[in-house]
Amino acid sequence: MRGRPGGDTPATRGGTPRARTETAARHVSDPLRDEDHQALVDEISRLLRTPATLEARDFSLIAFASHSGVDETVVDPVRTRTILSRSSPAEVRRWFEGFGITRATGPVRIPADPAAGVITGRICLPARHRGVVRGYVWLLDDGSLSPEDPRMPAAMAIAARIGASLGARARPGARPAEALRRLLTAPRAARPGAVAAVTEALGTVVEGPVALVAVRPWPLDADPAGPVAPVLAATVLPGSGNGIRLPGDPGTDTRPALALLVRLREHRAEPSTAPAREAVEAAMGRLPEPERRAARAGIATCRGVPAADPAGTDSREAGPGWEPDPAGPAGWPAAWRRAVAAAGVATVESREGPVAEWSALGAHRLLTSLPPGPPDPAVRDLLRPAHRELARTAEVWLDLAGRAGDTARELGIHRQTLYYRLSRVEELTGLRVADGRDRLLLHMALKAARLHGAT
């Protein structure tokens, strides 16, 4: 939004200001997902119907938005210079800071000053987080806006979201966190670049065994905290960024998940997942009580990088139920899918506890690979609400390997009641519980229905 007071500017050297700035905008990029900030700046521009520019605390350009309803002449040399150079000289920064923008908690009006190269006035919206200014949203002041405009509170709320985002990205570990986020959400074609980015961000630790941890649901406003050993990176993946549809959720999952990358100790045998469990305990401990009770976690391990395969493998040829163990950074997305699936199993299977490990899921490893769909025809009638108790009885009996005494005690019923219920299950399904194949079908169909939200 600014330029060096007086003197030549890029806007005076041919081409329209808007054409030159829009060309420059295509080259504005930042590894910390500037597109998220761009959407927020666009939102402010639409709300106030004026061009807007977002700059970091050091006055480096992050994003800008033009507005079709604004005349070309509004794009003055100062704004053009900022967009093209992406920075401002120290004396220009001091000039603007002289208006108190570093301490302001609300909109600040800065009048035009042609001698300083500011042809058009500005309104500055400080983007603050936890009492610290993280950046500035600059609005061109053509006289149609004022700090008292009734739309300003909404604009300041968006600026606060920007401040929180900039604050999160400024914390220790932001670069590894963003690299992990990019890798776990990248389409397959973009994986090689994402692997290179995470390797650059984390260094040689990517060669050792790690655990991917999924904690969900995770509140979007909860702080994932910076990486503290043995956590290498922590990031929150909202909605579809979770990698796969979570078991237990009818329909597409939209709940956010916390992703943790945890370094495991080198062992000759399988690496211990104790560090991952400690990381889960610490993460859940930061949540308020209601969210802590609702949260479930899944853990999946990823082997170190074999000498013959420096990038690792993502096990792309197989589904999650039977793929070989992933290895290296290229295998982290596969391990993440397993961790998310394990968290889903923990959500619907109380006996797994709040934390489930992929390696201990047994038959659920196969069931989580099944695509969502209608229940098997054999159990469709059994799953109707009127027969919920019968379905529960059959599932508990099968979980306990058909031991009638243990099942009756678990359900708090008499054996004769159990036998009656099992006979009703046979009538509704057409399956014989004494037949091993029918029993397997019944058990797997009930488990799959539970995982995919049909019970």
Automatic annotation (TrEMBL):
Chain residue ranges for the region called Disordered: 1-31, 304-330
Low complexity: compositionally biased ranges: 318-330
- InterPro entries reported in the protein's UniProt record: CdaR-like_regulators, PucR_C-HTH_dom, PucR_C-HTH_sf
**Gene3D superfamilies attached to this UniProt entry:** PucR C-terminal helix-turn-helix domain (1.10.10.2840)
Could you tell me where the Basic and acidic residues compositional bias lies? 19-31
Please list the residue ranges annotated as the PucR C-terminal helix-turn-helix domain.
Answer: 390-448
Question: Which Pfam families does the record associate with it?
Answer: HTH_30 (PF13556)
The name under which this protein is listed is PucR family transcriptional regulator
Organism per entry? Streptomyces alkaliphilus
Q: What is the lineage of its organism?
A: Bacteria, Bacillati, Actinomycetota, Actinomycetes, Kitasatosporales
